[in-house]
Amino acid sequence: MFEMKLDPPTGLAEEFDAAEVVADDYASEVMGLCDVLATTDCRFHVAGFGLADWPVDVSYDLAVVMEQLPQVVWSLLNGAETELDFYSEGIERTLEFHLAGEICQLKCESRTKWVPSPAKIEMKTQDVIAMLQQLAKDFGRAVAIAAPSLANLSPFDAWRTGEYEW
Description:
By secondary structure, this protein is of the alpha+beta class. The chain has a domain at 3-80 and 125-155. It has five helices and six strands, in the order βααβαββββαα. Strands 3-4-5-6 form a four-stranded antiparallel sheet. The protein has a two-stranded antiparallel ribbon with strand order 1-2. The two termini are 25 Å apart.
């Protein structure tokens, strides 16, 4: 089994400059929002391939995932194979998503000494998509809780309510 989830914060982020978070491009905005969330008790959790708790953080690793999330979900919804690259130093692994009808085979390739065991797992494609959409929804909720002044940023405001335009 593979799991990726976000536990939203229980309160406001530390003081921040909203002008430094709001950006002209999606990736920069995600990085800024993850920096804000990192000042809270928000927790990013990834498990699978032999590890119950991957050593991921909110400020960088969550940003890496959220940056790629729209493309990954779009690909899966359209029946295309895709990958999610955890490229941050120390994690350095890639998840490949191979579709076979209603089944999605996830393959984990490590670029460190860590060896995934097993290296491949199977999940229902609908479960993988639901997990990723829930991550998006929880990200939108986390932003609204931690930084209400940024709660209306698109697409995160729509994600919070379960509206996705991949």
